[in-house]
Amino acid sequence: MAFPVKITVLGSGTSVGVPTIGCHCDVCTSTDPRDNRMRPSILIGYEGRNVLVDTTPDFRTQALRAKIERVDAILFTHAHADHLMGLDDVRPFNFRQKGRIPIYAAPPAMEAIRRSFQYVFEEVERATNVPKLDPHLIDGAPFDLFGLEFHPVPVLHGSAPIHGFRFGAAAYLTDHSEIPESSYALLQGLDVLFLDALRYKPHPTHSTVERSIKTVERLAPQRAYFTHICHDLGHERAESMLPQNIRLAYDGLEIEVA
Ligand SMILES: [Zn+2]
Ligand SMILES: [Zn+2]
Ligand SMILES: [Zn+2]
Q: pTM for this structure?
């Protein structure tokens, strides 16, 4: 890449987060900060720009913690609540940047976003502030954002076709249970690969540790990070059982892409 790209993990947890409400298990009561996982999201920083992937219900806290001062575009992988419900909290970025924020989503996700945040898209004069967004549909073709090309990568999340994204030598594939054969071609020659690895036990809509290890073996990126992790995995112990080129992502992790 012609310029450095930094990925910040804003959240590495599954949909309910870790600790999970009401749970007293070893991981939910762990004092290791890496076992504290907010809902899944990354920030991609380059050339003074920030591209956000998903707006989780924890977005406000994540933005404060990571000291995010601007958001230049938002990509949505899909419109499940754990990836979407923080969208209203982008308003301070509208104020600071004095403009709309472009958002990118595939047609079914964009429809769900419009439904979930109906007030945002109503063309009415109002006395209160709502997020100011500029919607763009992802049609599968790569698109350029501020000099970096983003390739939507089709994956299956249960039976739902959703997207991960490749940008430069990095790819972020959160929620998925299957990577279609045709998507493997988009994932060659990676430096960094993020993969859903919910837990050890099978799940109908998510990848597991075992399955994602197989994906890493096949794609052979330089480094892989597992994310969207539930409380079945304690960071230290789970990571000690992984191959050296695979680590568990954790909230606050920053990675420079080669
Ligand atoms: Zn999710
Ligand atoms: Zn627990
Ligand atoms: Zn999901």
A: 0.97
